[in-house]
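Lab meeting minutes (informal)
Scribe: AK
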Amino acid sequence: MKKLFFILTIFFSALTSSFAQDADMQETARSFMRTGDFDNAILVLNRALQNDPKNLELQKDLVLSYYYKRDYVRAREGVEALLNQNEIDVNTYQIAGNVYKALEEVKEAEKMYKKALKQFPKSGALYSEYGELLWAKKDYAAIGEWEKGIKEDPSHAGNYYNAALYYYYTKDKVWALLYGEIFVNMESLTERAATMKSLLLRAYKEKLFADQDMMQNQDKKSSGFAKAFLQTMGKQSAVINKGISTESLTALRTRFILDWSKDYANKYPFKLFDYQQQLLREGMFEAYNQWLFGTVENLPAYDNWTKTHSDAHAKFSIFQKGRIFKMPNGQYYQQL
């Protein structure tokens, strides 16, 4: 019995040591990857894989190293090995998609994404990237994938970004505004967020009140939620008779959220509107609108506003840094 215990102790000790060595080598390789030294990363990863040839994480890092090095042929070889494994995660499919796109192997990529979404039908990341692949080849079915991503995985930001851009260039007056604002709250510090803020301001100026009849040129199959949004916005249209600015948008959206909360909040629960109501209740709605629109409408004027309203600006900034905005399941109201 003592002999068996001793053998098991030696075995598990060696196994633990092997795992630790793999982890150390992987971290070394990732350090090389972070500094752009992909040749050394590949060298270290290949040596680690000699000890543990079935390690999925090591294989993924090796494919990524070849991909970042732009050695797409070897990256593809690695992808084929990854996709032949029994256990594949979402990240593996994402890596494979990037390699196929780099090689412009659209058919292979499309086939792979369809397989991936059968295995992971609630992955917002896969819907987002598959939609981008379709959009790149001018296939407007892309919007269907982004909408599925929003419905199945509402906490993933990418689908809101892509869908908002899509709707901005259509006659639709609702979803570019809503999806765009949701995205900015989810991903507030990136270049894409700055792009989306600018698009939101243009959408309010160019689209929402372009027709006196809010439902003009809108899809007759629009959801009840979309119709309620336009009807409630239409009631406030007098606010922008002298033009749209950050100040007039703050007044417009204040009146909108008060009316929406009274008339539709129970029928159509919606996290974005709940958040706006919270900001209004706590005296931060003006600061929020300044952050959302003022930064892209007139940056010097925004900077001046932050100085003359320093307490309000500081209160909102602290509040915003301490929260994460996520859309919950079950609040999907689009109707394709």
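Next up, CB showed the second protein from the same session:
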Amino acid sequence: MVLLLLGTVAVLLFIVGVIVVVGHAYPGDDRELIDWFPTRSPEVEVQNEIDDVRQMLEAQNEMRRRRGAEELTESDIEQRVREDETWKARMRSRG
């Protein structure tokens, strides 16, 4: 029973060791080794984030218009974020 357990552990360690050695010895990029590449470029990701923020702001303003409240601008949102970050920093420094 002990020999079976030791044999299993030895085989697993050998497999992990081979993977580590191949990973270090491979001359190319890690992503190339495992054949992984991002599906979208960083530029596309940034544009998607910008579009998401614009859509969320438009949806928020639509709800505010229905309530009769004043619409928010991007600078209003940025100001709120700065205020929130300042408040969080103050709370962290207190505790």
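CB comment: Helices lie at 2-25, 30-33, 42-67, 74-94.
No objections, moving on.
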